Amino acid sequence: MTEEHLIHTLEEVRRLLESGQRHQAAALIAPLLPPDQAEIFEDLTLDEQTQLLKLVEARQAANILEELDEDDAASLAETLDIDVLTQVLDEMEPDEAADLLGDLDPELRRQSLRQIADSVEIQSLLRYPDDTAGGLMTSEYYVFPEETQVGTIFEYIRSQPIKDEEIPYIYAIDEQGRLTGIARLADLIRAHPELPLLAIVDTQFVSIEANEDQEIAAQLLNRYDLLALPVLDGSGHLLGVITVDDAIAALEEEATEDIYKSAGIMATRDNQSVKSDLMVRGPIWRSWIVRIPFLLLTMIGGLLAGGVIGVFEEALETVVVLAFFIPVVMNMGGNSGTQSVGIFIRGQVLGQIDLNDFGKHLLREIGVGLGLGVILGLIAGIVATIWQGDVIIGLVVGLAIVCTTTLSTALGFLVPLLINKLGIDPAVASEPVITTINDFTGMLIYFLFASLFITTLR
Amino acid sequence: MTEEHLIHTLEEVRRLLESGQRHQAAALIAPLLPPDQAEIFEDLTLDEQTQLLKLVEARQAANILEELDEDDAASLAETLDIDVLTQVLDEMEPDEAADLLGDLDPELRRQSLRQIADSVEIQSLLRYPDDTAGGLMTSEYYVFPEETQVGTIFEYIRSQPIKDEEIPYIYAIDEQGRLTGIARLADLIRAHPELPLLAIVDTQFVSIEANEDQEIAAQLLNRYDLLALPVLDGSGHLLGVITVDDAIAALEEEATEDIYKSAGIMATRDNQSVKSDLMVRGPIWRSWIVRIPFLLLTMIGGLLAGGVIGVFEEALETVVVLAFFIPVVMNMGGNSGTQSVGIFIRGQVLGQIDLNDFGKHLLREIGVGLGLGVILGLIAGIVATIWQGDVIIGLVVGLAIVCTTTLSTALGFLVPLLINKLGIDPAVASEPVITTINDFTGMLIYFLFASLFITTLR
Question: B328, A285: Cβ pair inside 8 Å?
Fold first, then answer.
């Protein structure tokens, strides 16, 4: 469905709801695919959403709630009667139901858990934080004792109702519930009905522990080209399965977060601003709140750099021309540091940087920085010499750029590592910390060189 | 397989190859999963790779070549004898074989195409550029005329050899080859063997045209939680299928590119530096080449800003204190602009920003910038007043920050849009352009306010 068609449908739905024609509005969205229905819901008011959701079947309501942003879904779910809510929860995929329940008012969560059918399964999913492998897994997949015959498995699948999400793998477990192998549906179709499952499974499989980060799960699914990843406890018992679509969503979310963070946009704890499009459409004050912290930190950096300049006021009074090169020295230090931070953060996410071998990475980066510094320092030095007709000014500017660029490049690798060791997400904190340090050291180096040569200047 | 285990195996393989024990080295990597084998290959020299690849079976060699970086794979493939190469190409997935052939020496490509079995199929895949939906699709999937009986399909699947990648969907086409519906393997298992395929397929499906960008394909797979996406021509004929693992790889690649670009790292045309880990491990001169352009552009920005300061030399000589606040004014303008660029770029990738409604987005962003400017200008103005004991200095700094922040925030949205309209990738060019403009305008605004109040200052 095209974006234009969606916008047109949205306008029509709004018009119908305003004129009280609720059933016509519901009929209009009924034939759409769930993600498109959700997109229309996102642009309606909570009141309009409630009106509409009450008119659709539980299964369709479940699909819409699965696709909505977590906070929108929770707000909308809380407007439903408890009986309707439990029907909808029963229709949802267990992992999505658990996520929604986790966001509901605690009293409502208790009531719902008492009434829903898969209560035990969902309660076990609720145990894991949202951003872990356990938080991403579903409890709905095909698992059989390893000696089960292929024919029996076929009969079981035939007896089950059609589900929206059907994982095309069959998991084999031993008597203790430990995962022993995985078969694909296609392997099952090819196998003789009397063969035991164990005979057709692949016993060399990739898995993840429930407490691992969701990003690792996404990396494994990506690296090994899997459609689903089994989640195990420490002893190898099968706890659940992560489907590739949830992993992609997690990857998209992490990539967005990383890009926002590297642009100095601080996500709130619940990541509302990152998941939804609040940065583009939401209330303006929200944008202020997420953008101000980074700007304040770089303000401190700028003021500290100003403080350094203040210390050298006398030199500056003698040679006011020194002020002309403050921007270029700051830019070279700041931007080479930013590049290194970007390479470190992405290198770590993609597993290119081995933290056990960090010394080697750092040495290489210092070499890169020195080379960049010499090239840039040379160019800026020549420009400064020509512009001011003074080779000493050129020398001061050039030397300052060589040193700040080398230092900033090295710090761009070192600072994120240290921040990481402190247990803070380096993607959030590295940029402002690096900017502040680089502004400060850049001005210090520049004016130290200037003082060194001041007697020769003019 | 853990990273440590991999490193240990790599060292062992190297040691064996050095002492001429090639077969032992090949035996050591044989039991590993293909992505792990590829990771070991990546760290070997081309000569070592060639020695080892000759000793493994064609199927295993195919898997390794599929997993390697495109350029590494092409270099390695070119060392193989033409007969071995065609055997390996026959074992590769058609989409991967087409990608590899596209990177080979033209003469070798012609020779191989003459000898491989799926020559026609692969030649049709070669028609589409790598970064389009057509370039991402495979020709290996289950497709049947819509009237085919379920039982016949089962028999066909049983007759086929097991493949590494097996798409769990069955595609139904009409007499003209147009896609009419899609069934999942699980639906097939549930269906009566005498039913025609048309009776069990879902006729409401999502598809993409072959010439669309690969990023759109990835977005569709993600949005609609699909395991595979059919690729059609303009008249609805089924041309191929994109699997979710290729889409994830494309998404990862695009996200890495965006993060690198926003950090001012220019990828070369063939994206070598982005796809592989050359930024972390490769030759140092490569890092210089991709990092220098951005730094040079920001150097120009810094020097232009310096030129503006130079114009106001007289004001600066009278009130040297003005130099102390150059860093903070530059930081506020620069960083608020960078935030807006990040939001625009990501918003566009995620489809949050509607370019037809750009005026509204821009107005909102100006509002955000004005709010940020007032908050930051107030704080910096108060700090400057207290530090210098001079309310006029505070007023100049504060007003300059209000104006530059508002302007930079707006430009952070406007510049990427204009760059986009010029047909240039905004993720590459926006940052340096914005930085240059912001440095220049920031200093201009600051010193204009300063001159305005200069008679009152001191």
Answer: no
